[in-house]
Fold PTS sorbitol transporter subunit IIA.
Amino acid sequence: MTKIFETKIVSIGEQAPNMIEEANMLILFGMEAPADLADYCYKISNKDLSGSIVPGVRLVIDGAVYPVTAVGNVVEQNLSALGHITIAFDGSCEGSLPGTLHVEAGEIPALKEGSVIELVA
């Protein structure tokens, strides 16, 4: 296993947990998240990506594993430049939006400041 990305949640927007509950989506953004989006995001501390994100890579959140099923065509670019991606816990095999990473559906752990998010090849 090769870790290609690791970050920690440093702050949680007021509406971010609702996005998980209502839409099964987790929105990540680096510390420079625009004010109008910050309420819906989990801000992260790192945006260094050291490999390709492709189906079969595993998303790991606080030890819970979710296989990647589809990758939007700007996920890597957005993650590296802005720390910004949307993670959809829907198991879709086709990317819906360019900045969306799809993973197998599953129970999403309760995220908190300090939660660790990784991508492992």
